[in-house]
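WARN retry 2 of 3 for item q-0093 after timeout on previous attempt; input resubmitted unchanged.
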Amino acid sequence: MKYYSMIILFWCFCFIVLTPLRLLSQYSVYDKEITQNEATMLLDNLYNSMQKYHPNLYEYTSKDEFDELYDNFISDIRSKQEYKPDELCKIFENFVSHTKDSHSSIGMYKRYIKTKESTISKTDSLVNVFPFAFNIIDGKMYVAYDFFTDSAIPEKSEIVYINEQKSSQWIKEKRMSICSELDSHKDAKISRHSQYKLLSDRINKFGFIPYNENDTLYAEFDCAVYVLDYDKYLSKAYDENDEIVSFTPLCDGKIALITMRYFYSLETMLPIVNGIIDSIKYYDSDNLIIDLRESPGGHAEIIEKFVEQITDKPFRLFSEEQFFVKNSMKNSPNEYMRKPWIHRDYINKKEVKRLWKDDRDSVFVNKSELVCPNKYSDKFDGSIWVMVGPYTHSAAVELAAIIQDNNLGIIVGEESAAVNCYGNPVDYEFSSSVVDEKYIRYDYFAPHIRLIRPSGEVTNTPIGIIPDIEIKSNITIKNDEQLNTLIEIINKTER
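OK item q-0093 returned
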């Protein structure tokens, strides 16, 4: 009897103690930290990748300074034994930020290796994968292409669940939400490509769990989504409460305020900008304020069309553009990177082929021609004011430089981010490894275009747009004190 009691007690111990430990181990596998040696190796890979792929790494930072920076970061990493992947990513971001070009960045992607015994449940850690395309066919969602492995999915793998919600229900809800917004876009002529882009922006950062009946595919992503065959359902390229471009009449319409939060593609932005210009004409505004203080930039295609709408004066978009084609890019082990797709919109095909045949690092320089806007009687002909600040980046900086260097308006606020280093970053994988069943991938995004502002000014230090009228921001004041001060200045000049 005593013997059987001991057996029963033993199994009770296993159930009460070991089961929670087993569940805890499921989480600890996915929360396992990266060791000091692994972190050092990852930083070393990033250090080498930056030297290999960045087109002008030593423009603002000398080789000695960069090496000293690397040594300091290595010493800091060795101060801890383990790092969480997200924590390490922030260290990498800080390291990359010292290039001072405002367009270098770090991306991190995680994929957990699942066993066939895994099931979808609340106790499972979710899976994080590089973006893949999907099709929606007859109301069902199927994986079409896996960008993580750069391969097509040969068999139909239906996505049944999306964050524990049936995909059919998710599709229905999103269609209702998107269709309800289409009424204001009925007359907008937007290309098929832009429709994909708009929709992908809308569902960006949604968590997905593709899952098929054979338990052969588990995946989740929280980064960009690429959409196929979904052009009937269109979305605004911004959240409901955060319009990318907005118009506000001030002082009974005498002042027109355009807030540009992001620069999307020409097809997306042009109908919106045209509508705003019509509103300015309706109010017969004398002053136009363009608020770029919180704009990270984006696509620069809209800039020329926008400036043509607000001035009759000839202007230049830039002094020159320098396109960098690194030899390391041409010989990349990634077939996708070897294709000369990067400059196809800027350089003619013959020139691209010539650059790619050259076995050296290449630079192609594109000079800007003078843009002469069409003149018509009802074009805006008042005063232009552009608000900038430290969070003004990229294409937004380019727009401000065009206004300032061509004497089209007055720049107000605080110094913007750097001017000369320009975007379209290229994605390079600098490290990937398996850490306790967890696939960690870090990517380095390097810029490949250098934009020289219309004035031709090139500096030895990263200088942004210096405002003609400096107005400091005060984060302790709830009201927009910078804007209120500018309105006072405008009203005084009108008297």
